[in-house]
Amino acid sequence: MNKEYQFIDVSLHGSVGVVALNRPKVLNAINRPMVTEIVTVIEEFDRNEQVKVIVLCGNGRAFAAGADIDEMAEANAIELELLNQFTEWDRIAWVKKPIIGAVQGFALGGGFELALCCDILFAAHDAEFGFPEISLGVMPGAGGTQRLTKLMGKSKAMEWLLTGDRMSANEALHYGVINRVIAKELLLEETMKFANKIAKQAPLSLRLIKESVLKAVDYSLYEGMQYERKNFYLLFASKDQKEGMQAFIEKRKPNFEGE
Ligand code: DAK
After folding, report:
1. Would 254 be classed as within a structural domain?
2. What is the pTM of this model?
3. Domain containing 65 — which CATH number?
4. Distance 109 CA to ligand 1 centre (A)
5. CA–CA separation, 23 vs 58, rounded Å?
6. How remote is the CA of residue 64 from the centroid of ligand 1, in Å?
7. Residues 218 and 154 placed together within one structural domain of the fold
8. Within a domain: residue 256?
9. pLDDT for 1 beyond 70
10. What mean pLDDT do residues 220-247 have?
11. Residues of the domain holding 241
12. Which residue's CA is the nearest one to ligand 1's atom 19?
């Protein structure tokens, strides 16, 4: 990765691509060019054959304290409609490879919404999640009301969204919003360990399992199972299915190639 980015750090560690939000002085407040950079790089990683898993994290003491309020303060509705920046944001949801989020410190507003775009979330003990939009006289607009509700159910989501209160890492774990709480100093190390572990799995299986799980959120059980079945059949067209099963029979480790 030799391109220079202004608001993010990008690195490649074997088969794990890492995007670190990098405006630590303003707690990684997400401005518009940062959204463009994040989406550009995640999509590049998604197309890069070497990359199997993507990790998203923040430099400094926060994951991200929300969208950049200085940038938003004077915005008007028509300007936002014409900017149409949510189409760019929505492309994160189309990424095929697993995205693992590592959250330390604040994940607020748009920062929480970005974390909720991840497939797996690890958080440090000091992580705080919340939607402070209500105290700014606005509301979440990048998926927060929808994704939080699908994860924790209507009543609890309503409470967090209407109060704007901050959820601790342990509360987020309790409500099924995140996967693990980890000591702060080990957060990145443990996240990378996990990313490397799943990066060794058959790439096409990773891809189609992610796609099928996401369908479970939107589809009825019947529709979801039809979708799952098509993906199941599809994997029998792959070389990796032959290799995986042959390796089992020959009592050796499979050598997956993503084909
Ligand atoms: N925007 C701009 N600057 C921010 C910021 C933010 N969201 N959050 C923090 N900063 C800046 C502070 O102004 C401060 O800058 P200096 O004064 O040092 O120049 C620096 O970061 C450190 O912050 P604090 O001094 O406030 O640090 P504390 O530890 O005392 O407090 C805090 C941390 C996170 C509790 C506090 O900074 C805070 O309340 N921050 C604002 C949280 C918030 O309301 N976030 C915005 C929610 S609205 C979209 C996608 C998403 C969204 C919109 C559009 N599209 C794709 C179109 C989302 C909207 C939102 O997120």
Report:
1. no
2. 0.97
3. 3.90.226.10
4. 9
5. 9
6. 8
7. no
8. no
9. no
10. 97
11. 203-249
12. 26
DSSP code of 142? Answer: S
Nearest CA among 253, 195, 240 for reference residue 51: 195
What distance in angstroms lies between residue 76's CA and the mean position of ligand 1's atoms? 19
Pair 98, 151 in one domain: yes
Strands 16-21 and 8-13: antiparallel
Residue 238's pLDDT is 97
Pair 27, 61: CB distance under 8 Å: yes
Instruction: Specify the number of domains making up the chain.
Output: 2
Quick one: DSSP state of residue 153?
-
Statement: residue 2 has pLDDT above 80 = no
CA-closest residue to ligand 1 atom 32: 65
Burial of 233 (0-12, 13-18, 19+ CB in 10 A): exposed
Q: How confident is the model at residue 198 (pLDDT cuts 50, 70, 90)?
A: very high
What is the CATH number for 220? 1.10.12.10
Sequence-ordered list of residues with C-beta below 8 angstroms from that of 212, at least 6 positions apart, any chain? 224, 227, 228, 231
Q: Name the residue with the closest Cα to ligand 1, atom 36.
A: 65
What does the block give as tokens for 36?
């463009």
Name the E strands within the chain: 8-13, 16-21, 53-58, 99-103, 106-108, 120-124, 128-130, 166-168, 180-182
What residues form DSSP beta bridges with 54? 17, 99
